[in-house]
Amino acid sequence: MTKKMHGLPIFKKAIRIATFVIIATALPSWASQDQVTPPSFNADNTVNLPTGYRQWVHVGTRINTQGNNIIDSKPIAQPEILNAYVEPSAFEHFKKTGQWADGSQIVKEFSKVKTGEDCNPANFTCKTKIGTAIFQANYTGLGMMIKDSRRFSKENGYWGYFHFGHHEQPYNATSELRPTQQCAACHNAGAADQDYVFSSAHAGLRALLQNP
Questions:
Q1: Is 134 within 8 Å of 118 (Cβ atoms)?
Q2: What is the pTM of this model?
Q3: Minimal CA–CA distance to 150: which of 112, 103, 186?
Q4: Partner of 46 for a Cys bridge, out of 61, 158, 174, 181, CB 3.0 to 4.6 A?
Q5: Contacts of 92 (CB under 8 A, 6+ apart)
Q6: Which residues, listed in sequence order, are joined to residue 142 by a DSSP beta bridge?
Q7: What are the beta bridge partners of residue 64?
Q8: Residue 46 burial (CB count, 10 A)
């Protein structure tokens, strides 16, 4: 009896270790990377509109002057300004390692350029009290890409692509995974050597690649 009781603590310890292993195995891969904040998904695999993304790390801006919008493929009636933001913990991981961790979130927000009486319709520069320049007007859309090796195990680079509408705010509250031809196809064709992120096209990421 004494021998059995003596072995009981060891048995209980073994159970605790086994339970921990099972729980850890069931957790998403980013759970072991506590520096990366995961996105908010719903039971139907839609993702929620991220909050506070304009306070994330701004990594680049570009102006599309012609062509089609990358969200809905509709022709651009006037130039659109695109601002890209990376969730801070994902940015820190990329800065340290040069790799995108599971749970990484990158958003791209669109806005129209300012037009009106004081603006040149040929080049969209506007004269204001603070000078002549091209100015942002209202926000008009939001796209997002998320890396998740479990949820998107069959996607190149484990990236999933979403958008919350190409229209003025309020944006859609949730988004489902977009078809491959809508977003992923471009990243697959043009950024496969950059983990499917156009890092070299964004000054804030390109600088890290050049000066790790």
A1: no
A2: 0.82
A3: 103
A4: 174
A5: 35
A6: 109
A7: 80
A8: 15
